[in-house]
Each structure stands twice: as C-alpha cells, then as structure tokens.
Amino acid sequence: TQPDRKLRAKALAKEYGIGGHSHDYLDGSSGFVNHDGKGLEFDRYPDHQKITLKWAQVEKYIDLMIQSDRYLTDKEKEHYSPPAPVSAKPDGALTHAKNLIREFCQEEYDSEPDFSDL
To answer: CA-to-CA distance for 114 and 101, rounded, in angstroms?
Structure first.
C-alpha cells in the first residue's frame, strides 16, 4: 500500500536483511540466492552464472507481478487479507501520549517537547 517506490525498495531490503539459501530453479538447475543491503544475488550452478538485482529492480518486478495478478497463487489469495490502510491522521492513543509527554516536559524541564521527528 506504500505509494513511494523508493520506500517500498527500502522496506524489501529491511525485510530480507542479510542471508541466503540454496535454490532449485524452474529449469532444474540449482544454486544459491543471497541477499543484503544491495539487493538479491542469484548464483546458478554448475557454471556459476551470477545475476544481481538491486532492491529498486526487485520492487519494480514485484509491483509488475502484483499489477498483473501473478504475485500470489490462488491458494495464497484464499488466506490473504489486505493490510489496513495507513491513516495520516493521528489516532487517539498518539494524541494522548503526546499530551502526557508535553505535561511531563513542562513539569520537569519547563519546556515544550519536540515532536517534529516521531
């Protein structure tokens, strides 16, 4: 649901983290898939053919798959529930927390808190 492509790419990098695993490709060959802050690296055996996709490329490909309804299988779609839309309006709990912090800062430091970078 994130409209900003760069933020989606950053979220993918964060979600994957650093790691990797062995992989069996559709043509029957095998190899490894590694991931880090730079992107996904596919290493295919026996010829060690390496392909690296930056996270922006991965995001673009996933977006294309979602738009063309090829990202989830029918079975996966049965168990999928879309995320709740993100609201730009502060909720009651956030407003209450800000008020408590504001009161504390006034009493303890006689100053206003800085909420510019939550």
So the answer is: 10
How many other β-carbons are positioned within 10 Å of the β-carbon of residue 9? 20
Instruction: Decide: pTM greater than 0.70.
Output: no
* Cα gap 5→13, rounded to integer Å: 13
In whole angstroms, give the CA distance from residue 5 to residue 17. Answer: 18
What are the residues facing 31 on neighbouring strands? 23, 44
Tokens 């800085």 correspond to what residue?
114
For the chain, where are the E strands, in sequence order?
19-24, 30-35, 39-44, 49-54
pLDDT, tens digit, 9 for 90 and up, residues 42-87: 999 888 889 999 999 999 999 999 999 999 999 998 888 877 776 6
CA atoms 28, 51, 1, 64: torsion sign: negative
Quick one: DSSP state of residue 44? Answer: E
Burial of 46 (0-12, 13-18, 19+ CB in 10 A): exposed
